[in-house]
């Protein structure tokens, strides 16, 4: 009996329990307030999301399979499926996705939405639930992106053979609706970034002689129609063009006209951004079919000059670590056979400094001299800018054009000075007379002080 009494005495009273509970509740409230002051709401949401994703993915590992879409494949070629998947998933973003990347891009009517890293999207395909998870990784190869898709193990073959093809077809159908060409620029290793290509130049608007334009168009038509010929003769289905001549003669406009004529995307490759032979090969491999690879001002890179003059330009190539042989191999060697239906265009202001190995047929198949403006080219400019076919001053202007060196770009600048045809043509005449006067004075000086 005494032991029972002793035990009863050890039981705390109701008032003591209430006091303890009150003290505990107060402590919890203080801890919660301190937590919210220390941990911002956004960080709390982010941590909670990470924990949910971690435990849900762990729980599913036993009965679920996971495919990983990485941004590189075997360390060389860019994995196109990651861009396709990101585009597809942007159409699946729903109310459960609390953090969304948005933007307004040139040529797009509305706002574009994108998936942020750490976010999850659940897609349903023929009754199969597929969970997508997007994130970034950092390793010895640098920073990259990857996407995981998780599904029940029993649907593995269906996801691989049907669902992923559905994703690719959806992406293709949606992008084809846009009917907009793209221009790509290499921003980092093995990755191209693009914007819409809106250059309005066509062969009709080029200030170039008709016969030259026709020969270029005929060559492009022949290239498109000879797929079987290239295959039968064992050659890569590609074509190389060298555009050479002084600045302002329309090289860039011709490239734009070629892209619009062929309906090909443009890849602007700056050799200064190439760090090694491997980087160059990887970059060239990551160019799609039906594309024009443009290497502008190739004479500015000392690696493509005549090898006999290499010492003269050595100081300009300290930071360039790819070789001419690697460039040639990508254009007309074993590596060139890895991609088909492509155009390669080089532009230069000084053809004479380029290594002859770069210029031979098979590498640069057609050499196009972009000359100073001709009378025929001037007629095209006048039609484009003023909408007229004839003028009383044309005969005098034609004589001056034949006697001086004036680029189409410089004459276009004069034509843009007024919408009044008489005023604009008068500005061109004044400009050409000044060019002729400068030429005559230069000739007199040279005659008076011969070398």
TrEMBL record:
Biological processes annotated in GO: response to stress
Keyword line: ATP-binding, Hydrolase, Magnesium, Nucleotide-binding
Gene3D superfamilies: 6.10.280.40, P-loop containing nucleotide triphosphate hydrolases
Boundaries of every AAA+ ATPase domain copy: 237-374
CDD domains in UniProt: RecA-like_BCS1 (cd19510)
InterPro entries xrefs: AAA+_ATPase, AAA_N_dom, At3g28540-like_C, ATPase_AAA_core, ATPase_AAA_CS, Mitochondrial_chaperone_BCS1, P-loop_NTPase
MF GO annotations: ATP binding; ATP hydrolysis activity
Cofactor(s), names only, from the UniProt record: Mg(2+)
Catalytic activity: ATP + H2O = ADP + phosphate + H(+)
Similarity comment: Belongs to the AAA ATPase family. BCS1 subfamily.
Protein name: AAA+ ATPase domain-containing protein
